[in-house]
């Protein structure tokens, strides 16, 4: 082992620690920083460092983000799924009817918008039929993952490995190369989810439901005392900011009730009047700070509930902070959340636990679930951001998505099917087909240029492109060859089967810790070198790591975005993913290894 190998492996290990610890943003700072280190130290040339930004697989991922956004906008998927749910005869039968088409859709569309779209629909359906949403939301995420491993376009990870293969002069995947290995695993996985997996799922309540039941523990009602001399009352006639009610320790003014009027979100410039009822949320133990203020009267024994806080123009909305959010690692106060989104934050949950501190001082992380009391402009503003996923059913007078007309909706689907057929018969490559499809969507105004731009997850693309450079450093210095050799020696007592197990397990572990795309890029050079050393067809090991990198069932915060989306709305604990996901991981792992060994090795 020479110095270059030691240096590259050392930097990669430090990079993984930074990703696991969530020290900072993984795309621009962690992967981008490592890429710059390799560039400055001469490990990579400038051409090698930026090669990932023009990689065909990465660019195809960008195009698929636009395609998925157009299909989501059409509304056909959610309307179709609403009909599939129908009236339940048995919960498990309904679950099966739901999961099969979800897997089918996910084989040809990015699964993140599918899960975002269906989560509020499923929650509403569950509430209407007195079923815990936690019985359906993890299966929703898992079924979308099982569908994603079926085809080349099912998930970005498949396209990333495909792009790496093309860069190495290999043929790359066809549309259905993965299918002959992953189809048995997906079918067995779905059967597990509606049988034993269903029994392992908890009966949890989501954030809104638990907050509603415990609203007295979260809300304080304070009245501007009408018995206090009007001219001497230190609050009447002053703005919220002038009255010193904006920066209370541990408490947050969420709403003002004035006779029949309800004012929220409360602005700093809002003037206080006599008899106003001020609704605070936050750390209830800090109530003493209000009790000591003259002119205020604490209301005890009120029957204040969440529903009574709403008026005709607002709604209680749950959102999940996304991986690409501009709010990450900033406090709610720093983001100016109230003015930016026309919504007040009532509570923040992390890992299914309410963060019991002052709302404004909470620093946001991916997966945080926020309960919002929204104003009339919230829905217009949320359309222009990727900061969070809305996981609450949207009332009809506040449509979250502008649905296409019926003709355009069906055109978007038929155009997609046509492109898939062209790829299937090798008439067009995936990149060319998706390029044509995006142009068609723009020309026929299925989606606007601004909407297309919004749907592209630039942070994901930056991470993928930077990760390509890191993978190239592993190749170039011989670090990948060294690691592959050590893996072969370690697995030697078990032969090739042992190596397949080691490669799959290592990729799966990396996926749970550092995201699926990063895991695939880091394992690609190791798998390729191992195949070359053993004179085995490289595609065998590459299919294995491709499926392993996408089969993320154990970790909600890091491994896969769909697991993150359903985490808060389902009221799940981290242990729920382990309990339900571990058997599924083993099913997919064993089936994949057996199929790879049978098709390419035995």
What is the straight-line distance between the termini? Answer: 33 Å
Largest beta sheet: strand ordering = 3-2-4-1-5
Instruction: Supply Rg.
Output: 26 Å
* Overall average residue pLDDT: 86
Shape: globular
Main pleated sheet: 5 strands, antiparallel
Question: Count the strands?
Answer: 10
- Helix percentage range: 55-70%
**Tally of helical runs:** 26
Report the β-strand fraction as a percent range. 5-15%
**Count of spatially separate domains:** 2
Class by SSE composition? alpha+beta
| Low-pLDDT segments, ≥5 res | 397-402
GO molecular function: monoatomic cation transmembrane transporter activity
Keywords: Membrane, Repeat, Transmembrane, Transmembrane helix, Transport
Membrane topology: Multi-pass membrane protein
InterPro entries: Cit_transptr-like_dom, DASS-Related_Transporters, RCK_C, RCK_C_sf
Kindly describe this structure.
- There is one protein chain.
- The protein has 602 residues and is of the alpha+beta class.
- The protein folds into two domains: 3-207 and 453-601, no CATH class; 316-390, Alpha-Beta Plaits, CATH 3.30.70.1450.
- 55% of the residues lie in helices and 9% in strands.
- The protein is built from 26 helices and ten strands.
- A five-stranded antiparallel beta sheet has the order 3-2-4-1-5. It has a five-stranded antiparallel beta sheet with strand order 8-7-9-6-10.
- A hairpin with a 2-residue loop joins β2 (251-258) and β3 (261-263).
- α7 packs antiparallel against α8 (137-148) and α24 (538-550) packs antiparallel against α26.
């Amino acid at each position: 082992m020479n110095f270059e190998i030691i240096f590259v492996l050392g930097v990669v290990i430090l990079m993984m620690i930074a990703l696991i610890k969530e020290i900072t943003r993984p795309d621009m700072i962690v992967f981008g920083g490592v890429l710059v280190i390799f560039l400055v130290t001469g490990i990579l040339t400038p051409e090698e460092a930026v090669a990932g930004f023009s990689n065909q697989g990465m660019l195809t991922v960008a195009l698929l983000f636009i395609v998925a956004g157009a299909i989501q906008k059409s509304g056909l998927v959610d309307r179709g799924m609403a009909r599939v749910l129908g009236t339940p005869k048995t919960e498990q039968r309904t679950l099966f009817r739901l999961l099969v088409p979800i897997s089918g859709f996910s084989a040809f569309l990015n699964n993140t918008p599918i899960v975002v779209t269906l989560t509020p629909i499923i929650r509403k359906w569950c509430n209407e039929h007195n079923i815990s949403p936690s019985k359906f939301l993890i299966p929703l995420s898992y079924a979308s993952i099982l569908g994603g491993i079926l085809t080349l376009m099912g998930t970005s990870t498949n396209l990333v490995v495909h792009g790496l293969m093309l860069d190495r002069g290999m043929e790359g995947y066809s549309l259905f190369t993965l299918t002959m290995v992953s189809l048995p695993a997906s079918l067995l996985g779905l059967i597990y989810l509606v049988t034993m997996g269903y029994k392992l799922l908890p009966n949890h309540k989501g954030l809104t439901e638990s907050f509603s039941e415990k609203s007295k523990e979260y809300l304080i009602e304070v009245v501007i005392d009408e018995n206090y001399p009007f001219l001497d009352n230190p609050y009447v006639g002053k703005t919220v900011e002038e009255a010193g009610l904006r920066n209370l320790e541990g408490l947050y003014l969420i709403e003002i009730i004035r006779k029949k009027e309800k004012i929220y979100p409360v602005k700093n410039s809002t003037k206080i009047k006599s008899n106003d009822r001020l609704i605070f949320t936050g750390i209830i133990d800090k109530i003493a700070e209000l009790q000591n203020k003259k002119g205020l009267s604490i209301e005890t024994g009120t029957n204040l509930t969440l529903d009574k806080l709403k008026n005709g123009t607002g709604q209680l909305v749950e959102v999940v902070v996304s991986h690409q959010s501009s709010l990450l690692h900033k406090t709610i106060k720093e983001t100016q959340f109230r003015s930016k989104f026309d919504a007040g934050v009532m509570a923040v949950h992390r890992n299914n636990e309410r963060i019991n501190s002052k709302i404004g001082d909470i620093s946001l992380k991916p997966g945080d679930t926020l309960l919002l009391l929204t104003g009339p402009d919230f829905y217009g503003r949320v359309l222009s951001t990727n900061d969070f996923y809305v996981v609450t059913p949207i009332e009809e007078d506040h449509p979250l998505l502008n649905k296409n007309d019926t003709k355009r909706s069906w055109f978007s689907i038929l155009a997609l099917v046509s492109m898939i057929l062209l790829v299937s018969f090798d008439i067009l490559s995936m990149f060319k087909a998706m390029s044509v499809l995006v142009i068609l969507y723009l020309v026929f105004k299925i989606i606007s240029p601004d909407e297309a731009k919004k749907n592209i997850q630039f942070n994901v693309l930056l991470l993928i492109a930077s990760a390509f450079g890191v993978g190239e450093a592993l190749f170039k210095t011989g670090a990948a060859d060294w690691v592959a050799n050590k893996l072969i020696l370690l697995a030697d007592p078990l032969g090739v089967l042992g190596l397949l197990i080691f490669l799959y397990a290592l990729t799966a572990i990396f996926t749970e810790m550092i995201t699926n795309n990063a895991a695939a890029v880091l394992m690609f050079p190791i798998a390729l070198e191992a195949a070359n050393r053993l004179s085995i067809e490289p595609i065998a090991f590459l299919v294995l790591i491709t499926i392993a990198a996408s089969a993320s069932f154990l970790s909600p915060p890091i491994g896969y975005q769909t697991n993150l989306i359903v985490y808060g709305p389902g009221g799940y604990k981290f242990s729920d993913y382990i309990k339900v996901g571990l058997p599924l991981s083993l099913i997919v792992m064993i089936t994949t290894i057996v199929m790879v060994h049978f098709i390419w090795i035995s």
